[in-house]
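Subject: Interface between my chains keeps coming out wrong

I've been trying for a while to get a sensible model of this assembly. When I model each chain on its own everything looks fine, but I need the whole thing in one frame so I can look at the contacts. Pasting all components below, labels as-is. Any help appreciated, I'm running out of ideas.
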Amino acid sequence: MLSSARQRRSFMIQLLVALSVATGLLYLLHNTATNLAERGIASGFDFLSRPAGFDIAFSLIPFGEGASFARAFWVGVTNTLFVAGISMLVATAVGLAVALLRLSHNPLFKLLGGTYVEIARNIPLLLHLFFWYFAVLRNLPGPRQSLDFAGLVFLNIRGLYVPFPEERAAMIWLLLLFVLGLFLGHLLRGRAVRLRVTQGRFPWWHLLPYGIPLFLPGVFLLATAGSWTFRVPELQGFNFSGGLQLIPELVALVLALGLYTAAFVGEIIRAGIQSVPKGQREAAGALGLSRFDTLRLIILPQALRVVLPPLTSQYLNVTKNSSLAAAIAFPDLVLVFAGTALNVTGQAVEIMAMTMLVYLVISLSISYLIHCFQMRVLRYDM
Amino acid sequence: MKPFWLGLCGLSSLVYSGLLHADTLGEVRKRGVLRCGVSQGLAGFSSPDKSGQWQGLDVDVCRGVAAAVLGDASKVKYRALSAKERLTALQSGEIDVLSRNTTWTFQRDSQLGVDFAGVTYYDGQGFMVGKKLGVKSAKDLNGATICAQLGTTTELNLADYFRSLSMQYKLVTFEKNDEVVAAYDAGRCDVLTADRSGLYADRTKLKKPDEHTILPEIISKEPLGPAVRHGDNKWADVVRWTLFAMLEAEELKVDSKNIEAMKKSPNPAVRRLIGLEGDLGKNLGLSADWAFRVVKQVGNYREAYDRNVGKDSPLKIDRGLNALWSEGGLQYAMPFR
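Reply #2:
Try treating it as a single job with all components included. I did that and got this:
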């Protein structure tokens, strides 16, 4: 292969720069390690296997006595993912509604949508958080004067208590089966559509895929629900026990994150819908499609192409903004690991590196997933 | 290319200079001001008063060090630190001494690259509950919701105590002490846990202080004292013996008011302390009248205790474990000879 002198020179310079950057990084790492050792500060990742010694207020995975720092780390990660996931759902749902409000012909709806967007996105997220946590949820009554809904659901300053079975693992299986059902249903429906295209009519089972997401968990429920113990929350001593407790910190965080991001998502979706050429809507009207069908079959799929890149940014923002949980005592990764664990072990360098890595991995995964979706389904040429 | 390599060499020299330069005493002298790490507002230990001046027992220790080293107790720059960042600030060199009601523990001494230069206050962890709950002892707290400050030994001791009694609890932690107290006052949790001195201080800030009681159990040892960086023995000596000077002055009945008159005292111990005899200051790298300055400008331990947490303060905590060894307490200054 012939390469000109120019190419060779350019290659050598790039190699040199890459080597010096690598050397610089190695030097920094070595220097940090030496400095830490010199000052008698413990370093290394052995602390992860030691018992943490503290408790965590909210956790999706079991975190009991003698649990290690590594487990505390995973509790932080799952809590962050949980909060970010729910907030993304809330933001997308409310955002879609807001976009449709702003696009409607009804002046009242337009005003409602517009006011919501301007208020929500112009106030800093931290203030949203403080509003929901201190101004709203702090003013709920104490446990002994809880708001009582049919004796099953209780609302007080310590949280929202709903009846829930004792077997937490079973609930996670249920959720996983539902997601699996969605995935399988999607695949099967794709196959049904392909068969219709080749053979001219739908196969006899073409409606079944819609039922699979409900069918799979349903079977699981029937098989196991008999052995479940459903607990209704009851006031025992200081607090309610039994059932599921949603702590106010979680609710405030989800509301603040969700409603704040919904304003941005709403504007993005509105821009996407408005970017679809007017001719599409006119043609759909000429074909006799209703307004709702036009939206569902013609407008939204085309708007999706425009909407996805900025929407990815908003989802990444939700994930990173969830770190504000530290301001209101919700045990996310920052509070549990880069807060309590950092203070207890004092190993700032390792802990901060791990925390930053987690956020980086989560963000990269989200953008990669959406990128894949864009390439395969929407056939972007990038 | 050349500027790049020059820059890299310059950067590395900066970094290496930090490594070898473990001479905080010299740096403080050169700078002319002592950088002291304090809390974000804990009544009695370190809190700003109405005019913004920092007051408290921990503050007085810093002022003592400034008087000893720089000659003027007011040459201190205070840095308010949360429990999370206090030790990192000391490790990284942002402050010269950490006087922030920090407990002297094994782990902090051995793993975090800090050394404790003494015990300012012997404390212990306790609980505060509302009287309405009718709880008389910490053993009745099974299932309670407890508020604590993030990143302190409080959380760890709490877990240990409840585990040893096989009791359950729910934890709510905040970064700032003010937030913890506000959450407890609003009813977010049943119990507030902190060092007992902190509980007395926090009770004065509640909406209805009389409706809250502090339970009798002390569930841990919390010796609070100033911390300095590991490896700087000279500086640690300065801080350690400043604290001892205040204790020794109380033992010898020397205080800020009579110290001028004490110059005429025939008592050799007094004369050594004030600097009229011996060369104690020289060995610390300070001038001969270093202890004289400390006691005159800040006072002895009794004066500092009384005005901040004792009988002349709103907290009115009695000396208890913090009395002198000769009066039944634990405070003991090493011999000044």
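Reply #3:
Confirming on my end. The mean pLDDT of chain A is 87.
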